[in-house]
Amino acid sequence: MRVIVLLLFLAWSSFCFSQHALQFDAKTVEAYTPFLLSVHKGPESLSAFKMQYPHEYLLQLWYFSSSFYIRELKENQGPKINPGLIDIRRFEHLRQENSEVVIPLTGFSEEAVLLPTNKLLYKLP
Fold first, then answer.
1. Can you name the residues that pair with 28 across neighbouring β-strands?
2. What is the per-residue burial (b if ≥16 Cβ within 10 Å, else e) of 109-119?
3. Spans of the chain, pLDDT less than 50
4. Dist CA 54 CA 118 (whole Å)
5. Residue-by-residue DSSP string for the chain
6. What is the pTM of this model?
7. pLDDT for the residue 27
């Protein structure tokens, strides 16, 4: 009986984990790789890091691509910004523990919104 319960638990755990695995499309990886290259001091170091710590690599990619979102302004005047051009580290000192922080993007029809620290999957050290 214990074996059956253990097998069911393992199957359920595996199913749950696979539903929440971090996955990124090629466009996102391409857009945010320059920031990862700067953190890891070049392509060789990043490649080694990605091979040695694949989960940590995905968490860092999540930080650069998903620890903020872009919100359209009501006025909607100006061009749209490419989120892949935003180095979110520049605004990290503004991030709050429990509330979102709005970052005006002067000259664009959108604003960046930082997720609160308590909602982050990962934060760069």
1. none
2. bbbbebbeeee
3. 6, 12, 15-19
4. 23
5. -HHHHHHHHHHHHHHHHHHT-----HHHHHHHHHHHHHHHTSHHHHHHHHHH-HHHHHHHHHHHHHSEEEEE-SS--SPPP-GGG--GGGGGGG--SSS-EEEE-TTSSEEEEEPPGGG-S----
6. 0.77
7. 94
Q: Report which of 74, 98, 70 is spatially closest to residue 82, judged by C-alpha positions.
A: 70
**Residue 79 in tokens:** 């061009």
User: Could you tell me if 31 and 66 are in contact, meaning their C-beta atoms sit under 8 angstroms apart?
Assistant: no
State both tokens at 6.
């253990």
Q: Which structure tokens are listed for 121?
A: 């999957």
Dist. CA 79–CA 87, nearest whole Å: 18
> In the prediction, which pLDDT does 123 show?
87
> Around Cβ 7, how many Cβ atoms within 10 Å?
10
Pick the closest to residue 61 from 84, 42, 93 (CA basis).
84
